[in-house]
Amino acid sequence: MVAVVAGVAVLVAPRAADRTARVSSAVPTNAAAENPRPAAPRAVEAPAPDLSAAVARAVEAAGDADLGLAVVDLETGAAAGHDADVPFRSASLSKLLVAVDVLTSGEVPADDLDRLGRALSLSDDDAMNALWTSHDGMGAIDRVSAQAGLTATHAPEDASQWGDVEMSAADVASLYRYAVTDLPAARRAFFVTALSAASPTAADGFDQAYGLLAPGAEAHVCAKQGWMWYLPGDFYLHSSGIVADRYAVVALSVQTGVTEEAAKDRLTAVTNTLVAGLADQAG
What we know:
Layout: E1 2-5, E2 8-11, H1 16-19, H2 29-34, H3 51-60, E3 66-73, E4 79-82, E5 88-89, H4 94-103, H5 110-121, H6 125-134, H7 137-148, E6 166-167, H8 169-182, H9 185-196, E7 221-230, E8 234-243, E9 247-256, H10 260-282
Antiparallel strand pairs: 1-2, 2-4, 3-4, 3-9, 5-6, 7-8, 8-9
């Protein structure tokens, strides 16, 4: 089901109860007549968080940045976003694709697991280069897209430039959902543990403490950051992850003519506003 609230697209996945097969409603007539019973009281369900309201508030904090925003409630399947289907150059978020591909490829050598852990936690580009080559990174894009139902993820023109893989915010959120619900338990634990160990400083010295990893941000978060300068002046800056063990949150941005710190402050304002809005809705 699709609704539009204040210009924000909201996708609501069917609840589990809606997908259950129907059971015959026939009741033995005599039993019903002879043994009348009072109706059982119905449990009162807490209202689902209004994701669209949280997204709308976050978009206001983006200023003039090109922003793709997506949030998925992993408990209910509800989703909302802003330009969530627009592909962005993914920078280091493409490491998530390779991670899922490696973790679904059968037995993984210990050296490759070590590289994968470094690629996710430290955003280690050398580790990613090795995995991209040895695990057919270009092929991984189609394999994982088919597995996770990604619809706006595209291979780069230059097969050596994994940072140019294009992904939409909705696809990144879907990838997180797939990883934490469909991967085997041990592989899921590896994925979450590696992202939970993201350090403030990346392997190349870049400061990762922005967005979902900003100081004072939600304590219960596992996250993957992405960044890339695209000359002459476009700065691709992304933050994505699982918040409060419930929400997949993805903020993709292209910011032009700004300093690194200004871009980080703007994206952090977006994610802080979104996470606060989700917390308010959850009560």
